[in-house]
Amino acid sequence: MKKIHFTYALIFVFTVSFAQKQEIKLPLTIYNEFGIHTMGYFAIQNSRKLQDTSSIVKAFNSLTNLRIGSIKIYPEGITPIWDNSFRNSFRYIFGIDKNGKEQLIIDKNNNSNFQDDDVFIADTLDRNKKNLCKNWSKVTVEYDWVKDGKKVQRFIDVHFAYNHQNNFYYYAFAQHATTILNQKKLEIIPIGDLSYSSYSVFVLDTDSISEGISPNKYLKDKDEVFLIKDLDINENVLTLEKEKRPFSEIESAQIGFQVPTFSAEDLITKEIVSLEKYKGKYVFLDLWTTWCGACLKEMPKIKDIYDQTDHSKIEFIGIVGEDKPEKINKIINTIGINWKLVEANSENKIFNKYKVNSFPTTLLIDPNGIVIKINFRVEELKKIIENKFKDTTEK
């Protein structure tokens, strides 16, 4: 009888679990062009001194300080029939010309030989203007992928720009994917490379500009909520998980959602900090780490605003990643942190709850515990407070 009861229990648990979650697989269409929301670009790094110049024609002999490196299009082993013959990256060479300018040579046909390649002239990156990657200098690079179980030749446009201030070249791949959910078009932007191991999903809606939604976060469409679960670039499928829970019960560090709750000890006062305590007022959350330079640079600005703010309207809470107490205390004393500060560690798993993948991460929570703004600078917070929170309504 015990075995029978146990079996029934397992069936019941499985049935309830299945009823709570329903997977939806959406076919993807890949476009070798920039999407509407493509904004990210990456710096070329990790070059090394070129020892053998036999693969470079005499026209390049005028260049000095030659360095060679490669840009990864997708990681090794990502395709089902992967072997070392797959060209999943392409090489480049840096060199200094007679005028002292950095020059770039790209192995466009990916044949590990630069004798058939010219110096590539990249546009200048202007930090003072909005940089649209699609307007940068473009080169078409050859690589290998899989179609119908066989290796095939493909081409991808790579756009480059040069920053004179720090002697960096930046690049961006011209590719994105789309799919349809409930008659609404979704745009998927790959981050870093074309493996789609990291990506953002956007809802293309003419009435509003949606935020980018990363994997393991939620996509809301009217009364339905979907968890972005997985993207398979081999099958060209985006997998969502339909939530059966009421929207009011779902916690997520996304605009419009209930903020994930936590309870932890204040590192300064040793009091228990819980978001439940601050219902009825706005809360500014600053998630940071001791090794994040950008985080530490913002701290004095946070202190200036905190010291000038009416705390009956808004509470400030810092959440620092786990580290040695003396290291955290040094920052507390150096900055003069006097707002609430808790540590995200393996026990409270705050960073996991908030799905943090970059620092600093900032959130503004309204008096009802709803996230109304994410990933903004302190200057924006100052304007919001000065404007008595009038610009914080959900868009």
CATH topology of the largest domain: Glutaredoxin
- What is the alpha-carbon Rg in Å? 25 Å
The main sheet comes to: 5 strands, antiparallel
Q: Tell the overall outline.
A: globular
Class computed from helices, strands and strand pairing: mainly beta
CATH C-level label of the largest domain? Alpha Beta
Give the assembly state of these chains: single chain
Total helical segments: 5
Q: Beta-strand level of the residues, as a percent range?
A: 35-45%
CATH level-four homologous superfamily name of the largest domain: Glutaredoxin
Poorly predicted residue ranges = 1-19
Strands of the biggest beta sheet: in what spatial order? 2-13-14-15-16
Strand tally is 26
CATH 2nd-level architecture of the largest domain: 3-Layer(aba) Sandwich
Mean pLDDT: 89
Q: Give the domain tally.
A: 3
Distance between the termini: 57 Å
Helical content class = 10-25%
Structure commentary:
The protein has 395 residues and is mainly beta. It folds into 3 domains: 23-32 and 176-248, no CATH class; 42-173, no CATH class; 251-386, Glutaredoxin (3-Layer(aba) Sandwich), CATH 3.40.30.10. The protein is built from 5 helices and 26 strands. It has a 5-stranded antiparallel sheet, with no helix packed on it. β14 and β15 (199-205) form a beta hairpin. The longest helix has 19 residues, at 2-20. The radius of gyration is 25 Å and the shape is globular. The chain starts with a helix and ends in a 9-residue tail after the last helix.
